[in-house]
Design brief:
The chain is α+β, with helices and mostly antiparallel strands. It contains 14 helices and 16 strands. The strands form 4 sheets. Strands 1, 2, 3, 4, 5 and 9 form a 6-stranded mixed sheet that branches. The chain starts with a helix and ends with a helix. The structure holds zinc ion.
Length: 401
Amino acid sequence: MRNIFILIWLISPFLSISQDRNIQIRGYMDTTNVVFQDIYQLWKSYGDDMWSNNFLGTNIDTKKYWAESEIEEYGDGFNLHQLLAPDYFIFDEFFFGINKRNDTLYELQTSFHSNYLTTYDLCYVITVPVIKTKDGYKFTNKFSLNKKNLKKEKIDFVEFYYPKDYSLNKKQVKKTIKKVELFAKNIGLKEIKPIKYYLQNTYTDLLYSFGITTAIGDYCIADNIANEGRAYYKARLITYTKGGENTIHEFIHIIIQDIRNNNNYCFFDEGVCSYFGEMNSLPYSFQIKKLKDFLNKNTKVNLSQDLTNAYKISKNEYTSDTTGQENNMKTWMRGDSTNYSYIIMATICDIAFRQGGYDKVKKMIFDSKDGEEMYGVIEKHLGIKREDVDKYIRNFLNNTY
Ligand SMILES: [Zn+2]
């Protein structure tokens, strides 16, 4: 799942408004304190560097900021906050303070909020451990410090980490690994490089172990236990909440990126992961029926107009018809336990697979584009013109499922 990337798409038009990064320090702090100044400056210039590099960190002197142990362990993915809060730099920052923990360990705490909407929106509160080294202060990951208390087990190409009170279903793990290996083989990946897989009981626990006290994606649904997973290609690290050992969705994300041989991400990836794997821990065979019902109930949704968004009328009603909908924001089509936008992509993957097997899916993985350009990819590989996409998908679902 990459819900946060969707968020970046949604708010990206607003990003161009603010050219400079906005960072404030909490009032009544002794900002003249030398330790405070050193650590704060390090954090601020890291943020400035990331900001001017579009949050990619590809062009910055990482060793200036991060402990060598993190770079050794996670490569380019040393900043593990980007696994669960990949977009945090884009928000306005309110710096909370710094605490000393022992002779060599400090922690800074900071928060991020958005002003895009009319109300104040707290998005993240993040705690970052800072260690004192012979080369000055360096950031480290809360997960690296917490890892010592986790159980660790290597099964095949996967290194599992999980808390002592988590009961890992090893029988299921073996089944899952077999499925991943089969998918990799079929799509043409000869060898799967090691992957770290961190399982936690709840999403809140997951966030906490990475130093994220508050996150935009948590505490969203009051009557549902959240199943959440993320894959962070740069660090070859996957996290999932309870039951993650039953799912291959996040593994497929990493395999797709191995095939592309880069860190690029396209929304079509979600379709491939949901078709060959699951979506919200539920299989494609279940989700596809929900999509069929959804589209049959929402006859005005026009997939030739948009593949991921529609105008929202009420809880489960959408339309792509703009007439009279001026006051409604265009919104991502989703319902209980199903992101329809993911399953629409999965349907496209399904059609591709029926037409030309793994080969065709692989070609589409290489060519896939986000937004309107995806229609061109669909026409090129599946021979369906944009104006026919809506009818084609509806007929396909009604005739097949
Ligand atoms: Zn995903």
